[in-house]
Design a protein that fits this description.
Blueprint: H1 5-25, H2 32-43, E1 47-48, E2 51-56, E3 62-71, E4 84-93, E5 103-119, E6 140-142, E7 144-148, E8 151-156, E9 161-174, E10 177-187, E11 190-198, E12 202-203, E13 210-219, E14 222-231, E15 238-247, E16 268-277, E17 280-290, E18 293-302, E19 312-324, H3 336-340, H4 357-361, E20 363-376, E21 379-392, E22 395-405, E23 408-417, E24 424-435, H5 436-439, E25 456-466, H6 470-474, E26 478-486, E27 489-491, H7 492-498, H8 502-511, E28 515-528, E29 531-541, E30 544-553, E31 558-567, E32 574-581, E33 584-591
Length: 605
């Protein structure tokens, strides 16, 4: 008579439990010689194990515990140390992956161990025992590491990385930190060293389990200090730390952050909270000093691989009391503004380089910026700047909401649309009350004009162009420039010279060089195809009106100007002709040019 199905299932279950209990209670040293011989045969190395036990942990996962462990190093490995020695080593595996291509070790626990890891440039690894010649991808994922009074060295010759780390227990555990880890090594030609305090178990990959960490590392003049919590050391799946980073130049960061080439910069210091929120990296309450510049604010960066559309995202709010453009980093070993200028040997003044279109198309973002003082070489300082920059699928919008430069108030907008076959750019600027001598301090140092009271300027500029390089931009500019001069005066002698009036020039020798008020001044230039032509150019005093026509060719940086003076109540016999490039000019008198119809414009009203 056959037993009922339920009874059979119960008998099988009980038999399985008894078998598991028997395996757990068994002394596995009976299998130790066979296991050692198998590993020695596969690895071609000497192996020693004094005690072997197999148990199940609280989650019913298999735990292999070895005592008195020693495994010789690979024949090709450098040095005389064995691959591993350990008073005790425990390995907890995941049942579900034991027969997979990549096995998961849930925990590695080492006690008084000395581990020497070596990897050749071709992928040969000394820790592969059963497949010593396998140069393929990873076959074991260690999720957690607990090392007590142990040393680990790593020589990754493919990366040029050398590392030595030693763990010792803290005499007084604090805030969950129970061990001290001292480390040193090299990455490429940069050496570094430091120490850290951490919890007893370090999560390595795929756990999301946080552990406390406080540490400091230095490489040359660069120092990194971190305090907080992180998860999965090899992935940094979660980060919540306070970070301090300082050094003489960002170019030395390669020792700590090897991805990409870091640019040269002045000395810097960064302080802030760094958080990983999902796939995004966030900085909060961040402060950065760079040379004599300062920046503060918050930012969120999401890499392209975490975005559905495959483009990275940057959101930031930045404030600065003082920002010097010459402090900004450059990949060419010099200040960013200097690197942006053409070489000294060229005759060009306007930059000609290509635009970083690929980078713009791969990044979306929004940056709000407030600057107390903005400094640039050979330019006056700008103050009280508020700007907003957005980048959406290759469409760049930069709005200057307000700003003060050369005593005037400015606002404007720059747009760059890279979505079409040819990038399109547009610029709009408005300014009120600009002081010319502050905008171009060299004006006040010119001969014979030191007594000029320069007028203030109101103006507007609208330009548009198409092209993938700055050089192509200059040859395709369309738009309009309008300037109006307000107030100011000329010394009587200069007024006479502009009017080509010899008698008034002689009168200044007797009557003095009194100021002559400027009644009106205006300039209007229309641009088409990179060529600007004056629609209006006039300067008027109580005795003289100077009108002019001119042209400006941005592509070859040449210009020409004809100024024709006219005394009130009479006609003067000559014109002033000037021409040149952005680097030089010549001026001469010529036969009087006929004035274009309506040239007086606003001043003639």
């Amino acid at each position: 008579m056959n037993p009922p199905p339920r009874t059979l299932a119960a008998l099988l279950g009980a038999s399985g439990v008894l078998l598991v209990l028997a395996l757990l209670m068994a002394d596995w040293n009976w299998a130790r010689p066979a296991v050692v011989r198998y590993i020695e045969h596969k690895s071609k190395r000497e192996v020693q194990v004094d005690d072997l036990q197999i148990r199940l942990d609280a989650d019913w996962q298999p735990v292999v515990r070895l005592r008195g462990l020693r495994v010789a190093n690979a024949p090709w490995a450098s040095g005389s140390r064995p691959f591993i020695t350990a008073r005790e080593a425990s390995f907890t595996f995941d049942w579900a992956t034991l027969f997979s291509d990549v096995r998961v070790m849930r925990r590695m626990h080492l006690v008084e161990a000395d581990v020497d890891l070596q990897r050749q440039p071709d992928g040969l690894r000394n820790w592969r025992l059963t497949r010593p010649d396998d140069r393929g991808g990873a076959r074991m994922r260690v999720q957690r590491l607990q090392a007590e009074r142990s040393r680990l060295t790593l020589a990754h010759r493919g990366l040029g990385l050398m590392l030595e780390a030693r763990s010792t227990p803290l005499a007084q555990p604090h805030d969950g930190r129970t061990q001290r880890i001292a480390f040193q090594g090299r990455f490429g030609d940069a050496g570094w060293a430091g120490r850290a305090e951490a919890g007893p178990v370090l999560s390595m990959v795929d756990t999301g389990e946080r552990f406390p960490l406080r540490g400091e590392a230095s490489s040359g003049d660069t120092t990194l200090a971190v305090q907080g919590e992180i998860a999965d050391l090899m992935q940094l799946s979660a980060v919540d730390t306070q970070v301090q980073l300082r050094g003489d130049t960002l170019a030395q960061l390669h020792a700590f952050l090897p991805r990409g080439e870091w640019p040269a910069s002045p000395p810097y210091r960064f302080d802030g909270q760094v958080v990983r929120d999902g796939a995004s990296w966030v900085t909060r309450r961040a402060k950065l000093t760079l040379g004599r510049s300062d920046l503060a604010g918050e930012a969120r960066y999401t890499p392209a691989r975490a975005q559905r559309d495959g483009r990275a995202s940057l959101q930031a709010t930045v404030t600065s009391e003082r920002l010097r453009l010459q402090d900004l980093p450059s990949r060419h070993g010099e200040p960013a503004l200097a690197a942006a200028r053409p070489p000294a040997s060229t005759t060009r003044v306007l930059p000609q380089r290509a635009l970083p279109l690929d980078a713009l198309r791969k990044l979306d973002g929004r940056i709000a910026l407030q600057i107390g003082t903005l400094e640039a070489p050979k330019w006056p300082g700008a103050h009280d700047l508020t700007a907003l920059a957005t980048l959406d699928r290759g469409d760049v919008q930069v709005q200057l909401q307000r700003g003060e430069l050369a005593g005037g108030r400015w606002e404007g907008r720059f747009a760059l649309d890279t979505r079409g076959k040819q990038p399109e750019a547009a610029l709009q600027l408005k300014a009120r009350g600009v002081k010319l001598t502050e905008l171009w301090p060299g004006l006040a140092r010119q001969p014979d004009v030191h007594d000029v009271q320069w007028p203030a300027v109101d103006g507007s500029l609208k330009l548009s162009t198409v092209g993938a390089t700055l050089a192509s931009w200059w040859g395709g500019v369309d738009g309009q420039l309008d300037l109006q001069f307000i107030g100011g005066s000329l010394p009587k002698k200069l007024d006479a010279r502009l009017g080509l009036h010899a008698g008034r020039m002689l009168s200044t020798l007797v009557g003095g060089n009194q100021p002559v008020p400027i009644r009106c001044g205006a300039l209007s230039v229309a641009f088409s195809g990179g060529v600007g032509r004056t629609k209006e150019l006039v300067l008027e005093t109580e005795r003289t009106q100077v009108q002019g026509i001119g042209s400006l060719h941005l592509a070859d940086e040449s210009w020409a100007l004809v100024l024709t003076p006219q005394a009130h109540g009479g006609t003067l016999p000559a014109s002033i002709v000037a021409q040149g490039t952005f680097r030089g000019a010549k001026v001469e008198l010529a036969q009087r040019e006929a004035l274009p119809a309506g040239a007086a414009g606003r001043c003639g009203a």
